[in-house]
Amino acid sequence: MGKFLLSRLLSLVPILFGTSLVAFFLIRLIPGDPVIALLGLEANDDAIAALRSSLALDRSLPVQYLAWLGNVLTGDFGRSIQGGRQVFPLILGALGPTALLAVAALVISLLIAIPAGIVAATRRDTVADYGASFAALCGLSMPSFWLGVLLILAFSIYVPILPASGYVSPLVDPLRFLSFLVLPALTLGTALSAATMRMTRATMLEVLRADFIRTARAKGVPWRRVVWRHAFRNAQIPIVTLIGIQMGQLLGGVVITETVFSWPGIGKLTVDAIFARDYPVVQGAVLVTAVLFVFINLLTDVVYTLIDPRVGLQ
Amino acid sequence: MLRRTLLKSLAASAALPLVLRHGTAFAAAPDVLDVAIVSDPVTLDPALMASFFELSVQYNLHEPLLHVTPDLAIEPGLAELSAPDDTTYVLTLKDGLTFHDGTAIDAEAVKANFDRMLDPATGSPRRSELGPIASVEASGPLEVTIKLSAPYAPFAGVLANRAGMMVSPKAVADLGADFATKAVGSGPYKLVSWNKNSELVLEAFDGYWRGKPAIGRVVFHPISDETVRMTNLRSGTVQLADGVAPQLVSQVEQASDLTMKQRPGLGFNAFSFNNTRAPFDKAAVRQAFVTAVGPQVIQRAVYFGTGSVSNGPVPPSIAWAYDETLDPARGDAEKAKSILSEAGISDPVEVSVTVTNSPLQVRTAEIIQAQAGQAGFKVSINQIDPTSLITVLRQKDFDLCMSPWSGRSDPDGNMFNYFTKDGPNNFAGYQSDAVDGLLKKARTTLDQDERATLYKQAQETIAEDAPMLFLTFPSTLQASVAKLDWMQWPDGALRLQFAKFS
Questions:
Q1: CB B381 within 8 A of CB B352
Q2: Which residues from chain A sit within 8 angstroms of residue B382, using beta carbons?
Q3: Which of A10, A40, A244, B282 places its Cα 20 to 30 Å from the Cα of A183?
């Protein structure tokens, strides 16, 4: 286990180096100029030149890259071109809301998907199965900006029990935080649950056909127990894999949901930074997201061993 | 264990709506005003601000030296302005005023602000707005004397705008790069906190020169989507919203609990022709295009009847310099064709029109495409992202490209940079000796009637030469809950010291 963790941590080094190169040069390949983006129509040659030199954007690309990399290694991610905030606190500040939303959305999706998937699998080709599959199809095909606006209309305007959009830190006002969280978490959770439900149904069907299920049934184990203890436990590995992927994507940011609900997350921060060619923020956000992805993959592997003792970590 | 926790949290979430219905979870206290704005400010530093959507936040944090009324009259603000001669201005500051941090607003502080904006190393867009300043001296404890190297008529208007916003020099020195996020000014409200993309909280300033504002706390929420801004207003999550989309105006007007306000703005929606390359290097081709495109259709179909049709750069809100006699034929395909044939052009003229990828701009481009198509132009649409727009314009990498302007209260601000030969916004590459001379003369002429004549002459020459395709003068569109009493300015900046809940 220790050796496994160490090798995974070591693999971070080449991954992050590669990511830093890609993040640095890719954003510079997009046409557009951060200084002109900042100054907009007020840009004149003097102001452009002054800002470019104060931001060190007039130096050669390799020099800029090495300077940036050196600073990052010492923990300094630089300052945002747009507004001059420190990049690292800016990213951490956006990561918090995103993580809270991601966890809430996952919880909601699992609460919907697991029971629905199991019911669909155990009552195959019944009304329950068709109903769950139809709902999943709706969930998969409904764009989140549309569902989000529908939910706002329903719960903020027609039955005004929740705020339309916004965010407050749970440390400041936990109750208000929850009131802001409900709608975006529902929007995201519904979309996620569709895929998880389909996956649960498919793997459960496969496991339920296995020999050991027949044996358990023959021994007289109650059906409920067969489903939950025997079948579902064995169906969990693909589901956990899917959840791991979903979590990684959620932590990378969910731009549309964040935009509809004015949720100050990492997705909106990154996309805004890309549009404004705010190089230091884009580079920092990409790096941090890459690290998170690696850790979530690691966590997924560890969870495998907990679910299935036959899986070992080498 | 897990099951019990889950049950507990389920029970808690079931109770949540009840709590909210009876609590004050999202209904603002009467002393708090929540405002939906179009985008988060980039910087709170008025010397460096560049985005039009930042103006509202700026005007609440920072007080300009002079005040402009909604009718564009200039009044004293932090200071009174007098002009002993054509090139000397004297600012006399009100006694006993301080910035939010307690630093005195005295002649030294004002001089420090001017020095900072004028220092090329600051890279401030204010530097060019301030005009030909030769020297700034603190001529008394509360008196600042500014000498110009030539008369500069827009000067008072400039001091009532971005360049007149004074910040605490002590805070600039102490905060360094953090000043952009923690700005200290002298406006009606001072900064409490600013969470990027979430909320910017301001609190009434006791020492504000007009007296403490009626509303104690203002929270700005950046909400980029226009529909979401309106749902927030309708649900009462915010009580005031900037940037109402034109297609939503009639809806808001019909809601009895909302107030819709619209007022002619200062800017223009226009496109620049590339005067430096074929086919738009020929005046006849530009004139034919302008004649072919009917702005009435665009005003109706894209702006839903808001704003007004434009034939030049000065909007009717700047009444004294607006030229109401400009009334060329527009939307006339036959006349456009005859202009082309008189110039000896019979083949279809192929041009591309460049717009940003917003639905509103694309719709505008499609109408232009259809109308010009009827007059013998073959128009293709080129969509770019908003950040590339300025680069494309500056590099003149276009045939016809959108170049909208937010506008200024003085006509100089709408014309000088666009139509003088080396003006920074002369994306068209327009080189007219006549217009260049008129605009330079108007800038150094102090008599308003004389200036009006000069600007009208310039507008007429511009209409003949057609370096740009003018479409509409947009209106400022803002809405609030009915119980909020507030004033609207043509520039769209919300000055909330004049707002109160009724």
A1: yes
A2: none
A3: A244
